[in-house]
C-alpha cells in the first residue's frame, strides 16, 4: 500500500549528490532522479484499510531508502517505510530515516555495555576535524583530530591501557586504519564501514533492507526520552536546497541540515 503525503521537511544526506558525482552513477539511478530519500509529511490520501488517515504526520523514506523523490511538494511513500511522527518534532523525525538508522545499524547490534567505541569522522572516543572538536566534546566524547596526520599513532596511544571494541569509520580516507586495526582494537572487534563512504550503487543495493520501521519507532522513543540528541546545522527554505547539497558534498556541515518545504505548516496535536 502507498500513501500520498504533503512534504513538510526533508533531510538531505551525502547520498543525494551521488547520482551526479560520476558518469557511472548516471546509469545506476532511474531518471528523472529527485533528491531526498527521507522526509516528514502530512498524509493527504491513504487507501482503505490503511492504518494512517488524512492529516496524520508520518516520517520515513520513499519506495526505498535511495529512491529519492521527497524533495518536492508532494510525495508517494510505501506504508512499510513510514511511521507515525508521534511526539517528536518534524526536524527530529527527519534525522532518523537515513543518518539515524545508519548510526543505529553501525553501533547497536555490535556493542555490549561498557564496550569502548571509536567513531572515525563522527562524534565514546571520536576522531574528527579540529573545527568540530568542541561539538564532539560537548556531547561527551574523547576527541582526536584526524586532520593532524598522526591518527594511527594517536589511536595506539589512546588504546595503550584499553583497546577499542568497535570501530565505526564514517569517512574511510585512511585505509591504514583498517589494515592495522589489530594494533588498537580487541581481538575480533568489528570494523564497520558506513555506507555513505561507499559508492552510490553499493548503498542503494545493500542498505535499504536494514531500515526497519521498528527501529525508527525505537529511535523516536529515544529522542523523547533524551537518550539521543539530534544536532542540527541549520534549517533552510526549499529554495536553498541546492546550497545544502553543495555544503554536504564539500563536508562543510556540522549536524543535520533540514530543508523546509515551501508553505509547509506543522500543527502540534495532543
From TrEMBL:
Transmembrane segments: none annotated. Signal peptide: none annotated. CDD domains: MDR1. It comes from the Eukaryota. InterPro entries: Chloroplast_QOR, GroES-like_sf, NAD(P)-bd_dom_sf. It holds the Pfam family ADH_zinc_N_2. This is Uncharacterized protein. It comes from Aureobasidium melanogenum (Aureobasidium pullulans var. melanogenum).
Amino acid at each position: 500500500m502507498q500513501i500520498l503525503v504533503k512534504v513538510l521537511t526533508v533531510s538531505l544526506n551525502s547520498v543525494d549528490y551521488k547520482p551526479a558525482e560520476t558518469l557511472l552513477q548516471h546509469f545506476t539511478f532511474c531518471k528523472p532522479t529527485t533528491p531526498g530519500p527521507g522526509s516528514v509529511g502530512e498524509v493527504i490520501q491513504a487507501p482503505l484499510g490503511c492504518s494512517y488517515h488524512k492529516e496524520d504526520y508520518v516520517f520515513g523514506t520513499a519506495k526505498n531508502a535511495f529512491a529519492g523523490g521527497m524533495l518536492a511538494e508532494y510525495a508517494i511513500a510505501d506504508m512499510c517505510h513510514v511511521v507515525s511522527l508521534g511526539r517528536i518534532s518534524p526536524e527530529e523525525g527527519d534525522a532518523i530515516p537515513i543518518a539515524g538508522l545508519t548510526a543505529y545499524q553501525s553501533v547497536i547490534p555490535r556493542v555490549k555495555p561498557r564496550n569502548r567505541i571509536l567513531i572515525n569522522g563522527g562524534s565514546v572516543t571520536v576522531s574528527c576535524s579540529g573545527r568540530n572538536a568542541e561539538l564532539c566534546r560537548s556531547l561527551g566524547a574523547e576527541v582526536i583530530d584526524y586532520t593532524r596526520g598522526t591518527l594511527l599513532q594517536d589511536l595506539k596511544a589512546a588504546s595503550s591501557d584499553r583497546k577499542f571494541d568497535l570501530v565505526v569509520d564514517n569517512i574511510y580516507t585512511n585505509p591504514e586504519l583498517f589494515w592495522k586495526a589489530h594494533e588498537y582494537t580487541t581481538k575480533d572487534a568489528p570494523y564497520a564501514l558506513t555506507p555513505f563512504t561507499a559508492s552510490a550503487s553499493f548503498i542503494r543495493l545493500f542498505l535499504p533492507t536494514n531500515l526497519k520501521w521498528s527501529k525508527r519507532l525505537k529511535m523516536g522513543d529515544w529522542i523523547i526520552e533524551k537518550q539521543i540528541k539530534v544536532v542540527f546545522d541549520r534549517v533552510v527554505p526549499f529554495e536553498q536546497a541546492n546550497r545544502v547539497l553543495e555544503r554536504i558534498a564539500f563536508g562543510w556541515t556540522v549536524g543535520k541540515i533540514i530543508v523546509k518545504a515551501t508553505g509547509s505548516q506543522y500543527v502540534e496535536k495532543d
